[in-house]
Amino acid sequence: MTPKKIIGQIHLWLGLASGLVVFILGITGCIWAFEEELKAWVYADKLKVKIPADSNALPLSQHLETAQNVFGKDIRVDRMHLPNRKEGTLIFRNYTPNKNPTGIWYWNDTQHNLWAYINPYTSEVIDIENYTFEFFRVVLALHWSLLLKNEIGQPIVGTATLIFIVMLLTGLILWWPRNKKALRMNTWFRWKSTTKWKRKNYDLHNIVGFYSMFLVLFIALTGLMWAFSWFNIGVEWIANGGERTKKNRIEVVSTPGPVASSHPLDIAYHHLKKHYVEAEIYYINLPQEATGTIGAYVAYKNRTKNVYLQFDQYSGKLLHTGGKWEDKTNGEKVKALQYDIHIGAIGGLVGKTIAFFLSFFAASLPITGFLIWYGRTFKKRKSKAVQKQAVGLNPTKTS
């Protein structure tokens, strides 16, 4: 068997082994590329409110009390999503893991995952949602772990992605043309009205695979950073010029003291609104312990501007500001941009559109590849059956 045939067999059997997972990752990747835009359209009724004539929003602490009353005393609000838009709905959430999980599915690890959508001007509860089964959350769970628990699904997804990368490289070897005529055939569609669907399917696999390969490979590699810690560490090590990032932990704690004149949460939120005017959204984590702090993550469209702040839970005083872009190592910068690179958001709407089509092409490769294999296998079996039938009808005479 020649080296190219051996590579062909590797390409075939690895494709059959990983095809279904790659298809799922590709389709869910298509959806997730426009998750933000789709949510704004599908959930417009609960993500946007009418701005009243008196557009002064009520204190954040009042909305927290409203959400807490809705959740009940046993389910504590632990995080807030606060869009920096006048028409944006405030989201209060609770995530409580299951302490004694059973089963293999991702929802078996969750006890509560509630989201409350609240009008910032009236404190009216617009909707309460079990986010575990929200459509886009399910899409993400499919993409992340095939709806399985992380310890089960992540290795499967990571291994399938690794196999897919090998498939792309072996596919390039198989695609490589022998001469100029083959090069023309392998780089452009030359369909006619008489072109059969098998040839069209082959071209879709061969030509689309070639043109999308390098960018799809890049997306797959960024995905591996989540799937395998060794790969993540390796990328960080390379980006840092052969060094690991040294973690300089800063211990920041809240100290009980005189009661603030306003609610500490309102003081912290006012600081965010005043000093980070152009931010897209503020994420606030509430303290879980007596010495814990109010943590705030300020997110921009441009992730290089994102910062993390900590406030005293008793006074609302700013204690620490971290996560600034200029303070990050090259490895940390790569990690910070990893998500935007993976979904194409680093290139704005154009980048997301490219990522959408690349995910679609990636999802199509297992299908077109399977049809090529099935067509060839079926053709061989059919040919053998015809030959046997012909021999039966016209047996060779022997003396």
Task: Give a structural overview.
α8 crosses α9 and α9 (229-239) packs across α11. The protein is built from twelve helices and eight strands. β6 (293-299) and β7 form a beta hairpin. The protein is elongated and about 100 Å long. It has 399 residues and is an alpha+beta fold. The chain has an eight-stranded antiparallel β-sheet with strand order 4-3-2-1-5-6-7-8, with helices on one face.
Search tags:
single chain, alpha+beta, eight-stranded antiparallel sheet, 12 helices
Gist of the model:
The chain is an alpha+beta fold and 399 residues long.
Structural class: alpha+beta
The Rg value, from CA coordinates, equals 28 Å
How many strand units? 8
Describe the strand arrangement of the main beta sheet, using strand numbers: 4-3-2-1-5-6-7-8
Unreliable runs, pLDDT <50, ≥5 residues?
none
Q: What's the mean pLDDT score?
A: 91
Question: Which H/E pattern describes the elements?
Answer: HHHHEEEEHHHHHHEEEEHH
What's the assembly state of these chains?
single chain
Give the helix level as a range of percent.
Answer: 40-55%
